[in-house]
Amino acid sequence: MEVPKDLLFTLEHEWIRVEGKNAVIGISQFAQEQLGDIVFVELPEVGSQIEKESPFGVVESVKTVSDLYAPASGKVTKVNKDLETNPEIVNSGPYDAGWIVEIELSDEKDLESLLDPDAYTEQCQKETE
Amino acid sequence: MSTSSSLKTTPLTQIHKELGGKLVPFAGWQMPIQFQGVMQEHQCVRDGVGIFDVSHMGEIEIQGPSARDLIQKLMTNDIDSMQDNQALYTLMCLEQGGVVDDLLVHRFSEDHYFLCVNAANTEKDFAWILKNAGSCDATIRNTSSETAQFAVQGKDSEALLQKLCETSLNEIKYYHFKKAKIHNFESIIARTGYTGEDGFEIYIDAGHAETVFRAILSAGKDFNLQPIGLGARDTLRMEMGYALYGNEINEESRPLEAGLGWVIKLGKQDFIGKAELEKQKHAGNSRKLVGIRLLGRGVLRPHYRILKNGAPVGELTSGTFSPSLNTGIGLCYVSSECAEPGTKLEVEIRQTSVPAEVVKPPFLPTRIKKN
Fold first, then answer.
1. Domains of chain A in sequence order
2. Quick check: B24 contacting A, CB < 8 Å?
3. Using a CB-CB distance cutoff of 8 angstroms, which residues of chain B are in contact with residue A58?
4. Nearest CA in chain A to B230
5. Which of B289, B299, B355, B349 has its CA nearest to residue B323?
6. Which domains does chain B possess?
7. Could you report the predicted ipTM of this complex, rounded to two decimals?
8. What does the pLDDT look like over B106-157, one tens digit per residue?
9. What pTM value is reported for the model?
10. Given phi > 0 = left and psi -120 to 50 = alpha, else beta, which region is B48?
11. Residue B311 to residues B292, B329, B341, Cα–Cα distance (Å)
């Protein structure tokens, strides 16, 4: 499975892409495959604070409800409004059109504990065995 | 992920794997929950035709001079109303009125029947029937392990299956069946289903199941036939508001509240549960099973609380996302004063009240061919 090299990952299958002081968050290809057809995404409010390792939203497929865990703490600067009407773009483009939120990072140290693409690929292999 | 060896497998497990099915434990069986994806499979059945492996369902055959009396005593619906080659939906109740199972009775002849029962209830039903049969003159056999069952559902199901059958399927009317060859193997072909579409359920010797299933898949290429998993089976039945044993009905439920009075024939001779069901009918229902539809977008799940002006009025027995309506739908017992279609209610989703309304199921019109 090809994992984009500019991302960091959580064990719960969220990714984060750092762009200066801000960062974009989504769920991985592996996560969207495991969930199946995504039909609803509950987004946080713009301006709200999300905390590393705490739930900040929910993705629902037909069969399952799954919490979204923040890879890092920060203030929400943007949410992907397209998900309100077309949540299936998380399935078709988990790393681009299906991004979920953008935050202003509170502390770059939050990123240190995240998995790099190689470590994450290994993690996914473990889970499918 | 692990697959427990204690799970039963159907004769089609190998094909499911080849077709990319995601296998999960269900009612003690290893069953495909999805192939291409629930949404697409759902649409495939609504738009054309899909095939389901439902071999986990149980079959019980009852034959002998007392068969009719025995079934009449066990079932709430009127078996005497049946003709040969007819199927009938019925409940089998306890003396106290709770539901042992909901099932289909098929009549071959006046003294020969077979029942199609829920997978999780097969052993329980078989034991219940034996217990109530006592020494009556009928042979009762649990033929589940030697019988495979497929459902072929959707508007193109007749045209597709006709390619593999000499018998004219057009002659099989809704809730009727025929013993007929499919791809040269003996089978029972019934015009029944659990999707709200025209379609058939096929019972066949387990040893021939794989060959026939492959033949149907191959003949189905012209119709864009797809294999369908249990995920879409649930969304399809939910859109029709069909009860699911274990969710809407169980041994504690009151079937009249579930809107199943139409299969409880209190005018017929004595049957198990009759006295209690008469009493319940006389007393009237304080609750009623209704459909719930979210007014905005979202997904409903079993056990979500239903509120009216902030006060709890019930809990969902089933809930899902309707691919046809693009929002959450569910079923719920509510007090009679909240049961009127159009009544505005709220669903508690993760501590938030979300607006919803009462709907009289089905959530969309059925396309069953009733004549």
1. 8-107 (2.40.50.100)
2. no
3. 350
4. A63
5. B299
6. 13-54+146-240 (3.30.1360.120), 286-359 (2.40.30.110)
7. 0.90
8. 999 999 999 999 999 999 999 999 999 999 999 999 999 999 999 999 999 9
9. 0.95
10. alpha
11. 16, 20, 19
